[in-house]
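User: Can you help me understand a structure? I only have the sequence.
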Amino acid sequence: MTDVMQPSVDAGPPALDVRLRLYQMMVEMRDFEKRAYDLFLQGLVKGTSHLGLGQEAVAAGFGAALAPSDYTFATYRGHNHTLARGVPMAPVMAELMARQLGLMAGKGGSMHLTSVAHRMMGSYAIVGAHLTIANGAAWSSKLRGAPEVTVCFFGDGTTNIGAFHEALNLAVVWNLPIVFVCENNRWMEYTPIGSVTAVPHPAADRAPAYGLPGIVVDGNDADATYAVAVAAFARARGGGGPSLVEAETYRHGGHSRADPGKYRPDEEVAAWLERDPLPLYRQRLLQAGVPEQALVSIEEASHRAIDEATELAKASPPPDLSLVEKDVYADGGAAWRR
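Assistant: Let's start by predicting it. Here is the structure, written out as tokens:
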């Protein structure tokens, strides 16, 4: 088996303004999803949803490294990735609550968050389906000669789906400007990935089969994920082709909010909670000399923002029935065109 590459940290930590931005993004993601969970318990969030509590450092690290013109594709666990592209909290929260203010006017819900204006090209409920679609976006950028990068996030379970291998193969054959990021949180819904996979690193250990280095990063370390993202995006933007990154992380809760996650060993959960990316990064910033009041200000601003977003979402009405035929086809309507 080819050795897995650990990302280089020779360049040192990011600049202070980047690190404060990373912390702000993670705090906002954590506050948003904690509020979404509370609203779910109140019966205000419609349908199921999948929280990324504990996985914020992946979304923040890669999100902070993206250019505004780059494309993001995510799974149904896509709240954090949507916020990372600068989508305001209120329309995201309203979409979860099936309100007209929502990103898709309340018609899509948690698993289909999309904001083309922010280059957030969708959250996808079908496991692995979006990898090939992401290739299409990257191919478009290459054909147009545009300096755009596509980043495609997926879970560890996707690595045993055919589309994963098909997408990687064509991305290398066509030398596409795309970065595939496996958020390995150890559990495929209710099944440990290690119990059904022949290699220890389900994404990185498969990379050499497609001529790619196997890159593993601590997905709970925002500095590390940012450094890996910067390097992978530079490679893609410079014509070096695709990358495959495996970010090792852990979801704090169950697969979805209807799942208490009791199948996971208590000692495993406790060990990963000790590696919660937010308090770890907060402590690192303090040790680097950042005044605590600066971090408190970030936290207080996030609390105010989520309160405002919640009230705006609550005040929005449910979708009007007239919207049912809107956006069925690419032209925005519902009429069949021959």
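Now, to help you interpret it: The chain has one domain: 16-325. The first strand starts at residue 71 and ends at 75. Let me know which part you'd like to focus on.
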